[in-house]
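Lab notebook page, bench 4
Experiment: in silico fold of construct C2
Operator: M.H.
Input chain length: 345 residues
Purpose: comparison with the prior construct
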Amino acid sequence: MTPVELSRTVLHAVRRAVDEGELAVTVPERVVVTPPGPGGCGDYATNVALQLARPAGQPAPQVAALLRSRLLHADGISDVVVTGPGFLNISLGGAASVEVVAEVLRCGGRYGHGDSFTGQGVVRLVAAREVRAVVQLDAMARILRSQGALVHAECAGPLQAEWGSVLGVHVDGVCGENAEVGVRPVPAPSDPLPLGRDAARWALLHPAPHDRPRIGDEHLVQRESNPLFRVRYAHARSRALVRNAADLGFTGEPGVVADQPALCQTLADHPRVLAATAAHRAPDRLARYLVAVADALAPLLPAVLPLGEEKPSAVHRARLALAEAAGTVLAGGLSLLGIEAPEHL
């Protein structure tokens, strides 16, 4: 169950409670689910009971208990705990992780794309005429479009030719230098072009916009200290596992991988991360998320293929599907940042 699907499940529980006369409230348009905060538990939490308590004329814990009784019977939910003043803390069952993997493999690189900006009119982005600003502009436009936005990306002045030819930056128009500039991160301290497209874009996008980026050869080294290398290596390893499994005569099949809850949870978070990245105009959120996916995938990689004379089993197929799904998320995220995800490193 993805966060979007869980949100719909909670909203359905609210709607049923209203329809059956247990709650006298206007059904909200959407319910927000997030990772549990301090004192919480489970996979996701929602404060919907606190939001409904006043209009319902009931204490929030009572509203939460009412919704809990309904959610416990929903497919993919293994437990619901009420904490604090009325937070619902939801644990997903093993079948939920299977659904997430299946959804990733079904959607491919479009997993996590949504429609939260659909119908909101044109989003106009104007970047300062500086290399980091235009790379941020390009990535923000890609991410916003993945969430259904109509984007018009402009630069306050003509682009340098190398920003397009080397860094792959695209803008929809050029405006005057007096235009209201909304994309103005801390400028790059030196020219990133010698790093090449992928390393340069990562160097400019991975730090938060208010942080000063580091432009150096550390983005080119192929070792674990380089976050970009970890992300691309994890993707390449996942693709190599798919090829090696095919040579052994088996393919991935979504199934329960009980010893990888962190990776399953991280993949389930992808739609939420993309939506938040778009809402906050912060490509660094996506970059840091991809590092988290790569680091969560690393412990799984050695256990995917059978060893020696061992025959492929259902566990191997489930692990392969999970690794393939993680690689798919890494490739899709890198693409939105304008960075290549090579199958071989």
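Observations: The mean pLDDT is 92. The CA atoms of residues 267 and 326 lie 7 Å apart.
Next step: discuss at group meeting.
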